[in-house]
Specification:
31% helix; alpha+beta; D-tyrosyl-trna(Tyr) Deacylase, Chain: A; Rossmann fold; 17 helices; BirA Bifunctional Protein, domain 2; 30 strands; 3 domains; 635 residues; 10-stranded mixed beta sheet
């Protein structure tokens, strides 16, 4: 069953014409109105035929939960076939709708619009964060046909128990302000925080599908960074030389930072036995869908993180309390998650992605909390240096109620550090392996959010993987484990930078990537062929990625194309520059739309400026020919 739930000022309908499958109704049901109501648009699906009673029970539970959240005792049940393309038979649909109506009656004022009639309706949505929600309900053991993996044997995708729990877990949503106050989402004024409001709506509605391509998709193609690969599965991308360069620089940067933080880099397999007793248990505790394949008559799964390999490695190690906290990191090329097709778009949500995955073994919860604080600050610094600042993302903090009661100061300090309100999700019961986690979430131009950095305190897996260390008394103890991705998926960092640039363009700013990530850092544009030799001299003196536009095009077109490629520094060479031994440089970071910032400086001054901007960051050589006339076009 698909549900679209609207908290409405009013909902009213009027029947117009019956269809061949219309139920017979009394005159009183041909029109109806309900004020201050939860309106439930409903589509009963073919999978519900397997167990209509269970569908009724789950739908009633969901409706009661949302009605409590929005504080209403009136519910309108409205059959709405347009929510699904895989509908049940009319007989089952009417049975389910009537069953839900009966179960809710007595507790609520309930009206049900008739099934199988063309109806006119009007509705007024209240517009608060909980006023528009969507839910999918499935009887146990069923799956929509589109959820199957089209691979050898056409096996069903593996859906973990944690993922199922995530869909049914009862959450309490709050806004935490830097002064330590927890506010009801509905009563907190989000108007001054438009991005937080978009993030709250996104999280609570659980609507992940996109209706159109976000701006970064056009940009990733135009800038020759990445594109869809039609020869592969959805969500598996191709990366052109510029995109591979950007990815490599980001990967090396995060690894360098992690090494400085004390993490040891390791490498582990991408494929594991699904029936391995320890791994099988962990699969059911991780909220993700897996790719499954068959090898030598064994069912395997492709990893969705580096946890499996690192924990199996930890199990075989001899660890002393003197080694703690012990940190290991892997740059997973790739991690695999069988994300749902409607959610896949550009670099935002992929099925194959690169994730820096760091795990820290801590002596006890006190040491884990101390590490959590340090890794929270580490993640802020990593994103800041990538070019994604605190103002660019929203913070979500998720925890169990027990953990919060014992660690309020830790949680409040997270809001104080970013100095803005954050979204909180709290559970009475722990459904997952962690008791605390945070994510930094980037909200894009379509108001969709994507998690970047995250840290989690894991209280299960040391026991599950039989990981232990020798304490000061020579006895074996279980460590507490932290999971950390300092930047989140590398592809998502690129997505966030492109989306941020697109939104800044709408604000009248000039879009660009950070200089250290720009494939070409300086482009030299000779006015004519006779200036190419001097352009080559300049290029030899610059310690950065330089190319030369030697094509037989007008100077205006060359400069415009450099602008469309977001080149940070464009150097135009003509007779005057050759005579004066200076260069005319357009500085993109200081330019405005239709008003470029040009300066006359020496090559040495430009070199010093760029060195300052890329200091402390990884560097790689230009992955393309220095001369544009020798380059192929990828897009």
């Amino acid at each position: 069953m698909q549900l679209l739930l609207i908290h409405s000022d009013y909902i009213e309908y009027e029947t117009k014409k019956q269809t061949p499958v219309a139920e017979k109704i009394e005159e009183s049901l041909k029109a109806g109105r309900l004020e201050e109501a939860l309106t439930a648009f409903m589509a009963v699906e073919s999978v519900d035929e397997a167990n209509p009673e269970e569908t009724i029970e789950k739908a009633v539970s969901e409706l009661e939960k949302v009605a409590t959240q929005v504080k209403t005792d009136r519910i309108m049940l409205y059959p709405y076939a347009h929510l699904s393309s895989d509908l049940s038979s009319p007989k089952v649909a009417v049975k389910v709708l009537k069953g839900i109506e009966t179960a809710l009656s007595g507790k609520y004022e309930v009206k049900r619009a008739p099934f199988g009639w063309y109806k006119a309706f009007s509705i007024s949505c209240k517009g608060h964060p909980l006023s528009e929600l969507s839910r999918s309900i499935r009887p146990e053991g069923t799956q929509k046909s589109e959820g199957k993996v089209e691979a050898t044997g056409a096996k069903e995708e593996v859906v973990s128990e944690a993922l199922k729990a995530e869909g049914t877990a009862k959450s309490y949503w709050r806004i935490l302000t830097p002064d330590g106050e927890l506010h009801e989402v509905e009563s907190f004024d989000l108007t001054p925080y438009p991005k937080l409001q978009q993030f709250v709506n996104y999280e609570i509605s659980k609507s992940r599908a996109v209706e159109r391509a976000p701006p970064h998709v056009e940009l990733m193609r135009r800038l020759e960074i990445a594109d869809y690969e039609p020869g592969s599965d959805s969500g598996n991308m191709r990366y052109y030389p510029k995109g591979r360069l950007i990815k490599s620089l980001l990967e090396n940067y995060v690894l360098d930072i992690a090494t400085d933080f004390g993490a040891m880099e390791v490498e582990t397999p991408i494929m594991y036995d699904m029936n391995h007793p320890t791994l099988k248990k962990y699969l059911d505790r991780f909220p993700a869908r897996q790719y499954s394949i068959e090898s030598d008559k064994r069912q395997m799964f492709l990893r969705f993180a580096a946890c499996f390999g690192q924990f199996l490695m930890n199990h075989d190690m001899t660890i002393s309390y003197r080694n703690l906290p012990l940190r290991m990191i892997e740059m997973t090329r790739y991690s695999f998650r069988k994300e749902q097709r409607g959610e896949l778009v550009g670099l935002r949500r992929l099925r194959a992605f690169t994730m820096p995955d760091m795990h820290s073994l801590c002596e006890d919860m006190d040491q884990a909390v101390d590490q959590f604080k340090k890794q929270y600050d580490l993640c802020i610094d990593v994103l800041e240096n990538v070019g994604i600042h605190i103002k660019d993302y929203e913070v979500a903090i998720r925890f169990t109620r027990d953990f919060y009661e014992s660690n309020k100061e830790l949680v409040v300090n997270m809001a104080r550090t970013v100095d803005k309100p954050v979204l909180v999700e709290m559970w009475d019961t722990r459904f997952f392996y962690f008791v605390l986690k945070f994510e930094f979430n980037f909200v894009d131009a379509l108001a969709k959010a994507s998690a970047l950095s995250t840290v989690q305190i894991d209280v299960e897996n040391a026991e599950r993987y039989d990981i232990s260390y020798v304490n000061a008394d020579g006895k074996l103890e279980r460590p507490t484990v932290l999971h950390c991705s300092p930047s989140g998926a590398i592809e998502r960092c690129i997505y966030a930078l492109l989306e941020k640039a697109a939104m800044e363009t709408e604000e009248g700013k000039v879009p660009m990537l950070p200089v250290w990530l720009s494939p070409t850092q300086v482009r030299i544009v000779p006015i004519s062929e006779k200036h190419v030799a001097f352009a080559e001299e300049i290029a030899q003196k610059l310690d950065c990625r330089v190319d030369i536009d030697d094509r037989d095009l007008s100077i205006g077109k060359k400069v415009r194309e450099a602008g469309r490629e977001w080149i940070p520094y464009v150097v135009v060479i003509g007779d005057k520059e050759v005579e004066d031994n200076t260069i005319n440089v357009t500085i993109r970071a200081e330019s405005e739309q239709n008003k470029p910032k040009k300066v006359q400086i020496t090559t040495e001054e430009l070199n010093a400026r760029i060195k300052g901007e890329i200091a402390g960051k990884p560097y790689r050589k230009l992955p393309l020919s220095k001369y544009l006339s020798e380059r192929p076009k990828f897009v």
